[in-house]
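TA notes, week 10

Several of you asked for a full example with nothing omitted. So below is the full record: structure tokens for the whole chain, then the designed sequence directly under it. When grading your own attempts, check the secondary structure regions first.
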């Protein structure tokens, strides 16, 4: 009985936490990463910085929005399947309700001068939040003293910057797959060298 009560309390906390993240975060999944890290890693200590890095990579590589995948992972780690369900529901619910109300009652919502002006400011803020989240993740990388991860990061950043400046049609998926292949290739080379030295 006590165990079930603890799980229910944990599920309620997960729901309220991710509901708050969902209702106060604009700009999609990438903007939510910094908020999720601040709450789940820094404040509540539900997961480690390394877990957050791994979640981000896995969530980006699997189907579905990145924030939902992060919520599902954190919820499952804290309270199993029920935790995953309530955390996911919590982060999705605000957006669903908001979009439903806009589509039902405010057909020309974005045409309103007040709303349009507010969203211009929100766009700028979202960009800063995403950059801040990326900088924090780079700082907290476990292998930040090693050169190879740093080279991959800055090469990827440089490529994406050039692609955006010149408006080239390059998929981010192909960039991620290339980075994965490079990382795997370096790992296999290192393992082969270790095996050779062991002989």
């Amino acid at each position: 009985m006590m165990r079930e009560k603890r799980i229910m309390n944990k599920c309620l906390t997960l729901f309220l936490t991710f509901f708050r993240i969902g209702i106060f975060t604009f700009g999609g999944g990438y903007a939510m990463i910094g908020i999720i890290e601040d709450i789940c890693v820094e404040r509540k200590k539900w997961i480690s910085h390394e877990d957050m890095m791994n979640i981000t990579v896995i969530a980006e590589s699997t189907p579905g929005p990145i924030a939902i995948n992060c919520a599902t992972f954190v919820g499952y780690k804290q309270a199993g399947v029920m935790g995953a369900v309530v955390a996911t529901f919590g982060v999705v619910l605000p957006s669903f309700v908001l979009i439903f109300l806009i589509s039902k009652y405010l057909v020309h919502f974005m045409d309103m001068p007040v709303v349009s002006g507010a969203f211009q400011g929100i766009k700028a803020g979202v960009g800063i939040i995403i950059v801040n989240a990326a900088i924090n993740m780079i700082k907290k990388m476990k292998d930040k003293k090693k050169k190879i991860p740093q080279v991959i990061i800055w090469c990827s950043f440089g490529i994406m910057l050039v692609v955006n400046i010149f408006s080239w049609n390059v998929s981010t998926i192909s960039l991620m797959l290339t980075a994965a292949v490079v990382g795997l290739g370096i790992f296999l080379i290192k393992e082969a060298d270790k095996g050779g030295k062991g002989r």
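Residues 2-141 form one domain. Use that as a sanity check on your answer.
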